[in-house]
């Protein structure tokens, strides 16, 4: 697995602090150790610590007082990750939406071409990614399987230039997938709907239904765009 596919260091730090807050190890009003001590404690750079604290502050879970330190603002068992997702969307909203516009253009065409050109091996590869999405409860594996599904369709279009172009912004695709999956996995109904969208695209490609595959991919990405919009309200 490449470094682009690994969980970001600051996200791991946030999860560790979250665990300590919900477990009552860190309590409201308590001052966190200095950045250098936190860096040693978690075995990471001070830059990663600083980024984690910045996002926690934006999410209103800590207060950074210049010259005084960082203090816990709450010990309630809130869903910190949901708050951070909202912050990430607000701070990088333009990039996410522009990426979705690009995905809408390129991936819908990939789906159309894949329906016309996919080999038996291509179809099997797409099917495996769909099975991986269906059969895992692990968040990271699910995100990777979702990304692999879209990359497999790009490869199945059998246009090397198009496949390389899409591969070049795979990390950005992963970001949009990561954000929307956190929302979609919040209920079994959302999960089933997500899986059905992917399954319908796969069936259209496997049947050689080019126009339908294109439309289904467009609908899928437009749905993602709508959900991102709702998350930022």
TrEMBL record:
Keywords: DNA-binding, Transcription, Transcription regulation. One of its GO terms (molecular function) is DNA binding. Pfam families: FCD (PF07729), GntR (PF00392). InterPro entries: GntR_C, TF_FadR/GntR_C, Tscrpt_reg_HTH_GntR, WH-like_DNA-bd_sf, WH_DNA-bd_sf. Gene3D superfamilies: GntR ligand-binding domain-like, Winged helix-like DNA-binding domain superfamily/Winged helix DNA-binding domain. Residues 7-75 form the HTH gntR-type domain. This is L-lactate utilization operon repressor.
